[in-house]
Amino acid sequence: MTATMGTPQDTGPLVRGEVPVAGGERAARPRRYRPLISYGRWWWALPAILMVLVIHYLATAGGALYAFTDWTGIGDFDLVGLDNFRRIFEDPTMIGALENTLFLAFGFLVLTNVVGLALALALNRTLKTRYLLRVLFFTPVVLSPLAVSYVWKFIFDFRGPLNTVIGWVGLEPRVWLADPDLALWCVLVVMAWQTTGMVMVIYLAGLATVSPEVEEAAALDGAGTWQRFRYVTVPSIRPSIAIASTLMLIQGLRVFDQVMALTGGGPAGATETLATQVYKETFALSNFGFGAALALLLTLIMLVFSVLQQAATRDRN
Amino acid sequence: MTLQSPRGFRRIGTLVVIPAVSALALTGCGGGDDGGSGGGSADGFTFAFENASGGQENPWVKLVEKYTEETGVDVETNALPPDSFGLTMRTQLQGGNAPDLMMFSPGSGQENSAIPLAEAGYLEPLGDTSAGLVPAGSEALFGIDGTVYAQPTSLIPVGITWNSGAAAEAGVDAPTDFDSLIDSCGTLADEGKSAFVIAGAVPPNPGLMTMAISATRVYAETPDWNEQRAAGDVTFADSQGWKDTLQTVVDLTEAGCFQQGAAGGGFDAITQGITQGTSLGAFLPGSSANELMNATPGLELEIEAFPPAAGGEPYMLASSNYALSINAKADDGAKQAAQAFLDWMAEPDNAKTFTDIQGGVPITGPGDDLNPVYAPVAELLEAGDYAPLPNQGWPNPGVYDALASGVQGLVGGQGDVQSVLESVDQAWDQ
């Protein structure tokens, strides 16, 4: 209580310039708040802000202008207005890439968050081996996505371990990554397998803020496991949910490495995403204008979904 | 106040100096390039090329070593990975720091094609010696309006790379007609082997297979099919030849001519299948046979043409898959040095040296000392019964991409012939 009431030795308000000092008349005059001790001025950041604006945003905006041209990467170009965007929505391959992107993004979002939260709840307190298991589940996160994808490519290979295992139970071998019905799911599994550990850690950090006393009190009041989770745990970890879901959605929307390493967008475009199409159109097919339009569309989609995600998961209290 | 002024100046100074220093630093990073060459001089030149042979010795490097030994000219080589070569060259050409001599693909249909770069003014017109090497009928692949910008290097036949040793063990003859090929596929499958191994997961390989098949179904009867398509007289979707070509792929798939899990196979599957003899044939550039035989002692490979349909005539693909061009912004001395190298390379002895190393056929045509792997197609080569790789004459890389991706789908049981051909037409018209 004394701390909140203030003490004769409490110099905080003085330091912050909130109380008059000697010569009370001048100090009591209403004036703009200004700390007596501060650690910087706003313009100290100006060079950095300028650099960010010029190098990051201006360059990006410059790149976005190419979305309205037919530039092939060399020579001159013409302004084509919205033709590139029209072409995107008229091309079944691009529509397929957009659908695949959304499927992977939302599948990734749901899978990583559900499994990550389940792992975090399981490894939060009582289990004796929880520290070892946390390390094991987190290990894939520190590996290179490309390296992980190539390992999984070997697992999914027609003569790989997965087909050997399913052969033991009498199932026919499958061409996992060359089957248009399975390939996208395979990519999703690899993405989720590698990233779930990260989500688990985010939720573990959130669960550390949940007071055991509050949970015990809820239990004493007769709340069941589900009710304690729904009405005590979830509200307490809402910031973690917001962070984990936003990060996973953005990561899912810009998936590239896993698709390129596992399928290269195949078979016959069945696993193409907007990010792989941006790369392919821009650097493999030399359609820089069209690739820039795809990149701009992907950026807008990420922006819109991120804003929606933030709105949906923000703490209304 | 006496303290305020210096502080004020310091503030302003900070605001001015930091961006200025940053700008200078960035300018320094950018270099003071004047759009000139990548460092060649009158005594030598720089030379960039694709290094597709991995750890093996590159034929360009060997050729350059021989050139330097003979002439004393210093050549700085830069071997780059094929998947990023085209993009790197385009970036360097625009940045003004491209090498003096570069390796490209003829025509416009690939990402590292020479003609779009020549149209943009990045390539130097070449001399008469270079022009004299351009195969008749292929002028548009190496130049614009009679001016040559890319010197062809060697002929690379494309057909079936056939493991004759494994075929003899399996009691199968090299395919000469399509029906017997289909029949043999079933027999081989029963023995746990396959007639062909393909990298179904890598679209360019099914794409190359399709082009090899198109030699007899399209280009044998209509060598100027590409020109007709460019003029709008024909389309892929309406072409019986292209329909037959893609139907042949479907027939091969349904007859079990490819290895198990072909749709998911990579290039490693080809290497293993061919060298171990579990598959008898693969669709590869002819020069790959040399590399595979060098890497696998005892391996017997030869190049066969893909068999024609019933009533068709044998025909195949053979073209200069690589061409050399000089950077238009190179220093004059470097340009002359690079042109002197091209002239030296055009001499029959040196052309033969290169093809001996590379495993191709001299651009001047097959002679008595034709590489033995080409013996089964020697008559076709001597008679001129071959067409250049079709995609060299296509207008953009998207056409081949659409074909290769579509055929990848057909091998995996996805899509149909007509929709694939329509997508190829769509890519052509972009």
UniProtKB/TrEMBL annotation, chain A:
Transmembrane segments: 42-68, 102-124, 131-152, 182-205, 288-308
Alphabetical UniProt keywords: Cell membrane, Membrane, Transmembrane, Transmembrane helix, Transport
One GO cellular component, as annotated: plasma membrane
InterPro entries: ABC_transporter_permease, MetI-like, MetI-like_sf
Compartments (UniProt record): Cell membrane
UniProt organism field: Goekera deserti
Residue ranges constituting the ABC transmembrane type-1 domain according to the UniProt record: 98-309
Entry annotated with the keyword Cell membrane: yes
A GO biological process held by the record: transmembrane transport
Bilayer topology term: Multi-pass membrane protein
Protein name per UniProt: Sugar ABC transporter permease
UniProtKB/TrEMBL annotation, chain B:
Highest rank taxon of the organism: Bacteria
One Pfam family it belongs to: SBP_bac_8
InterPro entries found in the cross-reference section: Bact_solute-bd_prot1, SBP
Gene3D superfamilies tied to this protein: Periplasmic binding protein-like II
Name of the protein described by the UniProt record: Extracellular solute-binding protein
